[in-house]
Specification:
about 260 residues, 8-stranded parallel beta barrel, 10 strands
Length: about 260
């Protein structure tokens, strides 16, 4: 029965026809404060929902602030871990919500953030294991955001550490793994080939141009990626609805970068 529940919920966050997804993370408030684009959550969520996003990621306290009730529906992923930029250890993520609590709040899935290479990696991996077990027991899909960040990491975008991060997510029981894009179709194909669960790319800091974002999205799809989990480059865009539409056209319809750019004009 838990398998059936997970299968039903996964279709709320991944397009059942394309088997790909456009996720917009909006969990930045704890780590960065009320940044631009996330001050009015009802408006922010409605904008990306109208653009065709499959799901958003948010913390438990924001559930209900515009997520449902009017407008187009959108999948809900509740983020379970957090840290703040005010901490002397901003890369150390702590569990702030449980799988059961997220389920009671109406989550379609849960997510967790792990930074590999950090001095506190072992604690984050332990939490990952506990969450993975609970999510499996409840039939709730798990998105793992995994980044190589620590003193041993010289380049967090290097294909060797990114594909290691993706494999960790797979072997720890995640249903979807989120990692950084490695910069080319060839290198990202290595990441995909070593991970048997869907892999989505992070958007990272705000980029300089729409074309740069869309080229990254297209490259990840050509490499075999399952979509995106892009936050600031969507909700801080001058038109989040059109930006989501442009990204979705590449992810779900196979559009070219040029055709996607035309949707923004």
């Amino acid at each position: 029965m838990t398998y059936l529940g997970k299968r039903i919920r996964i279709e709320r966050i991944i397009n059942r026809n394309t088997r790909r997804t456009v996720i917009v993370p909006m969990d930045h408030g704890i780590s960065m404060g009320p940044i631009s684009g996330l001050r009015n959550m009802k408006d922010a969520i409605q904008r990306v929902a109208e653009g065709g996003a499959n799901a958003i990621v948010e913390h438990k306290g924001l559930v209900g602030e515009g997520h449902r009730g009017e407008g187009k529906d959108i999948g809900l992923i509740i983020h379970l871990s957090a840290s703040t930029s005010l901490s002397p250890y901003p890369n150390v993520k702590t569990l702030v919500c449980t799988v059961e609590e997220a389920l009671k709040l109406g989550a379609d899935a849960v997510s967790i953030h792990v930074n590999l290479g950090d001095d506190h990696e072992k604690e984050m991996l332990k939490d990952f294991g506990l969450v993975s077990n609970e999510a499996r027991a409840w039939g709730l899909p798990l998105l793992a955001m995994i980044y190589p960040r620590g003193e041993k990491i010289k380049d967090e975008y290097d294909v060797n550490v990114v594909k290691h991060a993706a494999r960790v997510g797979h072997e720890m029981g995640a249903d979807i793994v989120k990692v950084s894009y490695t910069g080319s179709v060839e290198t990202f194909s290595e990441v995909i080939s070593g991970c048997a669960v869907p892999v989505v790319i992070a958007g990272g800091p705000k980029m300089d141009s729409d074309q740069e974002i869309l080229e990254m999205v297209k490259g990840s799809i050509l490499a075999g990626g399952a979509g995106v989990s892009i936050g600031r480059n969507v909700f801080q865009h001058r038109d989040p609805t059109r930006m989501v539409g442009a990204i979705s056209s590449i992810v779900h319809d196979g559009s070219s970068v040029e055709d996607a750019l035309a949707l923004l004009k």
